Amino acid sequence: MGIRSKFIIIITVLSLLATIAIGYTSYMLSRQSAIAEAKSKGEIIYNYIEASSTFFGKDQYPLIKDLIDDRDTFIPELMSRFVVNRMEYEIFQETLEGYIFKQATLDPLWPDNKANAQEEGVIQYFASNPQATEQQGVMDKDGKKYFYTAKPIKVDKAFCLTCHGDPADAPADQRDIYGTENGYNWKMDSTVGTSIIYISISKTLADAKQSAMKIFFVGIGCLLVTIICIWVFLDRSVVAPIIHLSDAAKDISIGKNLCDSIHTDSNDEIGGLANSIDRMRISVNKLLKRTCPDRKEQKK
Fold first, then answer.
1. What does the H/E/C string look like for 7-71?
2. Are 97 and 83 spatial neighbours (Cβ–Cβ below 8 Å)?
């Protein structure tokens, strides 16, 4: 294998690795940017929901309890934080798609709040780590990728057990609406669910992957053009002159063409080598004339 081929192989391998590295880095940076943006949006949505929940528990619920003396009366839209949050988010979702809010619970009153297997894992994490206040990550959901922000739902106020403690103590209206099988017998200070917000990042990741592929193929195209240019340059400026000088050196070694000067227009290392071989030709020619005065020059 010639020098040219070895050089081209080395350049190709290194350039290909560099192109792959650049494409991969581009994808990872875009992915990190997408996740950071999703995280920021998720925090905004969650802070709004949390503010609404705080207002409900601190201001709205006590007023409603003062207005409704009958303990068996239960109006979900006014007296349930879960229902208020869900209905507010349903209105929000009408104008902004790609976001999902769920109050995933192990044993909910409302069947749609039932936690799936992945959400059960999040709830178990909070139950096993009482000090944890948040979990974030990427999750596959319905064949799409979502970034999620989850926070625990804990029974931290006694009035929660009014509706979710012993079914017999729950308002009669609530038992009529939801039944008495699910959503009861919660315990104080227990982790029963998670408020989880999903932000779709499938399109962003697909765009990032497409951008990385474009960079990769552009890099491959530039690499091919570079290799062709290097090949032509090496052929004209290095390989062809070296072959010419190699043939001249062989002729000199057997006493041929000693009167033909070797010259080149190059002023680089190739030109220096040509000058050295030419000086060797002159020296060999002089030596042969001294030692063999009657010798005739051999020509091809």
1. HHHHHHHHHHHHHHHHHHHHHHHHHHHHHHHHHHHHHHHHHHHHHHHHHHHHHHHHHHHHHCCCC
2. no
Higher pLDDT, 282 or 1: 282
Q: What is the pLDDT of residue 296?
A: 56
Model confidence pTM above 0.85: no
**CA 34 to CA 204: how far, in whole Å?**
6
- Name 194's Cβ contacts closer than 8 Å, sequence gap at least 6: 103, 104, 115, 119, 122, 123, 126, 135, 150, 151, 152, 153
| 238: its two tokens | 């290095």
Examine the pLDDT at 169 and tell me if it is beyond 70.
yes
Give the three-class secondary structure for 230.
helix
253 pLDDT exceeds 80?
A: no
